[in-house]
Amino acid sequence: MFQPLRAMLREPETRVLVVAALSVVAVGTIVYVLLEGWSVLDAVYFCVVTLATVGYGDLHPTTELGRLFTIVYIIVGVGIIAGFISQLAAHRQAPRRLERDVDRVIDEVDRVV
Questions:
Q1: Which listed site, 48, 58, 66, 111, has its alpha carbon 20 to 30 Å from 76?
Q2: Cβ(39)–Cβ(102) under 8 Å?
């Protein structure tokens, strides 16, 4: 799991996605602590559950400002998290794809020789 994440951090294009994903959770946590008066753990939990589109419903914003923020947070955050997960999956499969390509080239060289 950590190897694809390390690979993402090495590439400037995907490093931005890692930073964006961490930032969206951090910003959400800070906002919910300030607006809703939740503990840091409750705020992080809510952010992760919300952005994972699980939505248990045990925590929810009670202030109007908190609800408005949540609307924007979901629209922006789910897109960022989806992009992050997509790139993480791509980096996880990259070594296997490379190995298959190398095997195909070796097989082709063996056929020619």
A1: 58
A2: no
